[in-house]
Amino acid sequence: MSASQVRDYLLSLQQNIVATLENLDGHTFQHDQWERAEGGGGISRLVEDGGLIERGGVNFSHVKGKTLPPSATAHRPELAGRAWEAMGVSLVIHPRNPYVPTVHMNVRMFRAYAEGHEDVVWFGGGMDLTPYYGFEEDAHHFHTTCRDAIAPFGEQYYPKYKAWCDTYFFLKHRNEPRGIGGIFFDDLSELGFEGGFAFIRAVGDAFLQAYVPIVERRREYPFGERERDWQAYRRGRYVEFNLVWDRGTLFGLQSGGRTESILMSMPPIVKWRYDWHPPQGSAEARLLSDFLVGKDWIG
Q: Can you tell me which residues bind substrate (predicted)?
């Protein structure tokens, strides 16, 4: 196994996901290839104002740097000063129909190295779902797919990474989850290079199975201004999390990453209100009371 094999897999994963989403959406994704002055580059694939997707992107990046930024060494102070390379695929899809949830997925490999020291390699990633209207069937399907994808590596991984996802994608300043979670993991090294690579392949390959059936169930649901207004309001929470708490956003900006690609995850239309709450008993209120609670969705 080598880093070049990881790169080849990530490029094929990006292409497979884009091809499927283009078929669902009916529009072709833009292809934006870029280079980074300090080393490496990437390919951003983006669609805006599509048939299904209001804004969405599937990014591949393979970037290098001379010194790890603070966000990467906060939990590994012994690696401060090392050179590094990171590669991964990251996607965020914001559909237009409020009944189709926003989704995020990321798989990545990170290597820190220095002359005279052994390379330190770890893997990370996961996927999570952010609905605007709650459907237990969708939550069950998404979490079951996540669990089944990583079950071959050990029964301990899903509950561990499900709990980590619930903790990570939590807006501390709002005291509420961003969505219904999924799985999240970082610093995965105990499986070795081959095992870690197999783990992120399992997660990446499960994404379409986890998300496409939900899209197909909900995309034809009728909606109006009320539903779009609620969607825009809840998207504000998504923006708040990405700009205030997300380590990936912070790492990208601190390491001199490409701003357009880093902020691709932002939804196109967002609203904020002062101290506002949906009417009691409404479908909107039910999202908050029954779905954004960090519960066990598989049972």
A: 90, 106-108, 256-258
